[in-house]
What we know:
The chain is an alpha+beta fold. The protein has eight helices and 21 strands.
Amino acid sequence: MLRLTGITVRYGDTLAAHDVTLEVPGEAHVLALLGPSGSGKTTVLRAVAGLEPIASGSITLGGEDLSAVPVHKRRIGLVFQDGQLFPHKSVAGNIAYGLGLARDEAGRRMPRAAQHDRGAELLEMVGMGGFGDRGVAGLSGGEAQRVALARALAPRPRLLLLDEPLSALDRGLRDRLATDVRDIVTTHQTPAIVVTHDHDEAAFLADRIAVLIDGHIHQIAAPRDLWRRPADRAVARFLGFEAFLDADVRHGVARCVLGAVGVDAPDGPAVLALGQHSLAIAPHGPVAATVLSRVMMPDGLRLRVAVEGLPGGRAELGAVGTLHDSAEPGQQIRLGLDGRRTGLIASAPARSSRAEPDGVAARG
């Protein structure tokens, strides 16, 4: 198990990460560090790897304090955003470098025959069997990341760290490689930390997601729970929610000025967080709105609508519709709340009962 307890990292007078505490269980558990640019997520990853000194706190792996352990003795595999393969080595040569770092408990190197077998095994595992003699210059972005992953796994690390491993790839390739990365980590039974700013990537790859904002962890939760119950408005905004409405929860139903949705929450005051998909066209829905703009997407309509009659006045919100719905700019439509696409911030009443847009409400 990896355990970070109150770690702080400074760059001069700047706090890059502050009082970060988290755990990653053993075996195939994947934790995503998710946050915007400058949130401290890569700083935390580099601190775990030993590439950044910590000003305070502790990092332990398997019960071992890593504070005095140099990078090359931590037995941690690291995959960077661009792979960072050795250009003068072949595919097999890059993996052999990782194998050359492997040591048994007595500190002995892996025999050459065993290195060869392990290299072939890893190439098959990452779908690169038969590529061993190729130069890395001719590899595609996805192939290079597969080789980088194989190299990181070569010495059988106790922990795998992946820093934005898919961000440089196009969407289709990113989705395919994300599936492969998840399968490989599970098969290899190696716990992993993935740094990303991409919501979908984090939700797909991770068992749990830690949201970092301004160097602080605001929430750690399973992907489903994160979107259903963001801890505060800062998390909700980063996840794509754009407006907040006071609500009152009674017997599993949250009621607000736009209607009611079923929730799994105790009775009491709460805040509903609305995103682009929280309001949907419904011919007999309770919400009257005027279409401001529309965009046709492969999966349906994306709308900007004006909702009148709220306690705080007029609000501009996002909404969705099907490809068969009629919604032209200036048209009056009816909308309903979709509880499956609405977040709930429990016990956190808003300062006013208006629908506060992103950037207006104070950080939660």
